[in-house]
Structures are given as structure tokens and as C-alpha cells.
Amino acid sequence: MLSIVIPCYNEEESIPIFFNEVEKISQQIKHDVEYVFVNDGSKDNTLSCLRDLHKQYPNKVRYLSFSRNFGKEAGLYAGLQAAKGDLVTVMDADLQDPPELLPQMIELIETEDIDCVGTRRTTRDGEPAIRSFFAQMFYKLINKIGETEMVDGARDFRLMTRQMVDSILELTEYNRFSKGIFSWVGYNTKYLSYENRERVAGETSWSFWSLFSYSLDGIINFSEAPLNFASYIGALSCVGSVIAMMVIFFRTVMYGDPTSGWPSMVCIFLFVGGLQLLCLGIIGKYIGKIFMETKKRPVYLVKETEKDNV
Ligand code: UDP
Ligand code: MG
């Protein structure tokens, strides 16, 4: 069986279109298909839309509904936990992940010695230029400083074997960054490329700043480089100050001590003070993550599933 996991947040317009498109494609697939929709605390009629779909196709469409918005990562996790298929795929509800690729992905995973078929966008057309620029910077940075490789343009849309899904579910951390988790668990992954699509309906729920802080989360969750940066900077400024002290000492001995240099002194104070705050901030970020992690809160809370609706 093939399970399709779809996190949905305010997708009442997209879901019917999505379902029809995928149903068409699933004619070409010889597996049984199971849909696992996760309603991530939508504020529109997404939930009643899912209830209706389940009524129409009780054996095919399942859904979970969260008690509030927990974020896409929580939705993915819940969906993967609920999925029962031997093959599991993760898709967005807005058809930005082309379902036409599914038959090809299934064939690849069944004929070749791979555990996962991922997809990546070759272009970012239709996206604001500044967003693409920062996305590229992010991938350059994270691949340089992190130990986990992340593929530029890779989407969450991927087809995985049961074994890989079970491995992903073993990572029970609270701060989830799927792009990192998918690559951290390893296994053989092959990427298919396609051109960027615009969403069919509705609006993206990611603003520039929410993406920015998401990428910061990614860096903090998968790299200790910022912490090392703090200690390098500290060591560097120590060495620098010793050299400066020696220079000042010998200059005073040889040329006397005309009092001067207050402006430069103030600049140095401000600079060092700023560096200390920056490093404290970096450490604080990690402590915040540890704090959330040690509370061991559930990643999501379910308010309703298809079983409550028979
Ligand atoms: N999504 C979600 N919870 C959220 C935000 C988004 O489940 O808090 C879902 C959304 O419904 C969609 C997918 O995640 O199916 C991708 O979101 P979106 O299309 O807004 O992101 P983009 O494609 O613009 O990166
Ligand atoms: Mg989208």
C-alpha cells in the first residue's frame, strides 16, 4: 500500500483540486492508495472538507485534526506516524509537488537499490528574488558548517520505504527540521528534478521572516558551528589584546605617554561589549532549544480523527 501524507493549513480551496488530481494519477499506480490528511489547526473549513472526503471515501481517506496550529513539521510527523503503507510519500496540499512524478518515483524505488526518491526544484521562478537569494545562501551556509548535507532546492515531497519512515519516527525530538532529519537518517536517496510550480489556490503561509527564523532553527538544530564561532572569536580577541598591550607598553617606554585615544577606546568597548552580547545570544538560542527539549512536550495534540466520525 502507498500512503500519502498531506499536512494542511487553511487549504479548503486546494484540497478538492489536490484530491482529484492525485486520484487521476493513482489510476496508473498498481498499489492501494491511502490518504492521510493532517489538519494543522486551520482557521477555515479545511476540517469539514476533510470530513466530507472521508464520508465519500471511507476506506481511502483518513485524517487527523490538531487542537491548534502546531506547524508543518508537527503535521508531517503526525502523518508519518499515522501512515500504514509500505511506501510513504509526503506532499503539500497546494499541488506544488507534481503528482505526475509519483508513478516514476514508485518505479524507481522498486527497481533500483534505493530507499527514498526525493524531488528538487531546478528553478525558483515565481518566487520573490530576495527569497531565492536567501534560500541559496542558507544552503551554502548549512552545507559548509553543518555535518548533515542538505540539497539545494530539495522539497519535502519524497517517497520513502517503510524502513526509512520507521527510522525517521525514531527521532523523537521536539525541535524538528525535516530537511535535516531526512538526510540525517541516511539511506540511499535519488533526486528527480522538476520546474517550480505556483500553488493552485490559497496563499502561502510562510512570510519572509517565518522562513528566516525557520532557517535559523535549521542551523541551530543541525550544527554546532555558531557555538564554535563564539569560542574562536573569544580566543582571537584575547590574542589581539595581548599584542595590543605589548605594543602600548613598548611605545610608552620609548616615547612617553601623551594621553590620547579616548574615542578609539570607546569604540573598542562597544565592539567587545557587542561581541559578548552576540555570543551570549548564540548560546542563549541553544539553551532555549535544550529547555524546550527537556520539557518533553508532545510534538502535537490530536483533537479529532476519522475514527471519531463514523
Ligand atoms: N502547512 C501546515 N502548517 C503550517 C503551514 C503550512 O501544515 O503551519 C502546510 C500547507 O498547508 C501546505 C504545506 O504545509 O500543504 C506547504 O505550505 P505552503 O504551500 O504555505 O509553503 P510554500 O510552498 O509556500 O513553501
Ligand atoms: Mg506551497
TrEMBL record:
InterPro entries: Glyco_trans_2-like, Glycosyltransferase_2, Nucleotide-diphossugar_trans. Keywords: Membrane, Transmembrane, Transmembrane helix. Pfam families: Glycos_transf_2. The chain crosses the membrane at residues 229-250, 262-287. Residues 3-168 form the Glycosyltransferase 2-like domain. CDD domains: DPM1_like_bac. This is Glycosyltransferase family 2 protein. It comes from Enterococcus larvae.
